[in-house]
């Protein structure tokens, strides 16, 4: 007899009986079921399809199930599915070479990790060992990952070079719509945020600061494009004080902003870049650090006290090579720029003109936020209940959204088509009308 087909309720029951979910109180969860996908579309077991304008966690830059990437993973699986990091492996070498081909000049090595959090862990470790300093300055309104204690809990020698007594300092970054600096222009916001960072460095003691760690474009925090001069000013402050600049491109990199790296749009050269997500669209978990010549030279003679069993995993490496090749062959980065410039820019502006609940639209490429407010003047955010209603209206109309606080992030795959954008804009329009 044929087994009964799997239904959404089977999958939810199985999940709720066995799976512990991230960032959630477990009891009231009712997760959406996804069974399959292709390009910018996903579907469940009950015949419903959705436009995926979340790119999952803003990672499926190449879309779902890209055939050449799937094929490369299968080929690598037949050849060798795993290999220890100490060995040399052809696919891993090619993956590093492909990434470096798009990195700024003067960066010459890749350290592979399992994802974005451990990429940042290792970038921080490199900056600390390179400078002999310990503090890291980063921003409020940022996300850099969910790790931190494993190496300090470790009992052997590997703990010792990683035990830092002084840790992390936070500053406000530029965010003109909700300025912490009473700024009225992007220029003022940029200058005042830099002055705040300058004073923080001085008062923390420049000799104690190893690194400034910034998302080039803060993503989950609201797609906060840096105003003119900000990143360049941070670089100048870092140079003045011998501080390493780490740019986190985990979410913003690999086509998301319409450039290979978000930093390509600015005149800034970091010492370290962290990546994950879009490098292979998360088909196999992977991340890593792009390392400058100076920092990699620090470890020419000296042992680098960091590593991971799956660093440079061959299935991940194969998916990176195939993904970057497909990006080049199919002009996927150019598509993201074109969609942003010619479709999302006018389309989201028209949406904002029709819906006063949209307080601000910001972004570029396929990386946009709609900030929803109760009042255009006070800019008071809409309530979580309002966002819950919006989310339900979008899902009912077949669009899988990315919701963060009082914002809808419009973050489709970089392969999204103008026709899909048009359908999505209609759905956002209808859903916003339905809740008001
Ligand atoms: N950095 C940024 C900018 C991110 O957006 C994320 C994840 O959303 C991370 C780091 C952490 O990456 P992962 O979840 O792969 O550890």
TrEMBL record:
Alphabetical list of PROSITE patterns matching this protein: AA_TRANSFER_CLASS_3
Keywords from the named record: Aminotransferase, Pyridoxal phosphate, Transferase
Keyword Transferase listed: yes
Alphabetical list of InterPro entries matching this protein: Aminotrans_3, Aminotrans_3_PPA_site, PyrdxlP-dep_Trfase, PyrdxlP-dep_Trfase_major, PyrdxlP-dep_Trfase_small
Pfam families named in the record: Aminotran_3 (PF00202)
GO MF annotations, alphabetized: transaminase activity
Membership in a protein family: Belongs to the class-III pyridoxal-phosphate-dependent aminotransferase family.
Cross-referenced PANTHER family: AMINOTRANSFERASE (PTHR43094), AMINOTRANSFERASE CLASS-III (PTHR43094:SF1)
The name this protein goes by in its record: Aspartate aminotransferase family protein
Species assigned in the record: Arthrobacter humicola
